[in-house]
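Shipment paperwork, digital attachment
Item: protein structure file
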Amino acid sequence: MGPGKSTLVKVMTGIYQPTAGKVWLDTEEINLVTPDDARKLGITAIHQETVLFDELSVAENIFAGHLILHPSGRLNWKKMEQESVRILNEIDAPLAPKTILKELSIGQRHMVAIARALSFDARVVILDEPTAALSHREIDDFYKIVRKLKDKGCAILFISHKFDEIFTIAD
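Attachment content:
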């Protein structure tokens, strides 16, 4: 039996229901029955292996599952691209929204995953072993993004086996 970190992440994202205890957000007890419940409350997880779509653009990956539509019901490509640029600029990720994901490095894909989380107005971001496949430079860039998220008021749950990372990120 492991330490339970995967189970905790699944409870916090509405995949599993707790068998004991309570989940609180700010000063309110919450009941996360589905992953959509967690998303609506701004709770999101970014895993070591990001779940993105290689054949889609950066903008399509950021808004997959919650596409921006015109009142007519058609996709609003212009708005999705504008919002992608805004979110990517927020985290200093100089990526073009029309770039196809498979053309990006692992570190850049993590930036897209973080931008996706921010597109949901994330309040709690769970980072599960996010640096495992990153180079030293990409890790430094990643730390800067995490600091920006913290400065913006996001709560960060950082899961790592590397104590130096925890001490670098934790406050």
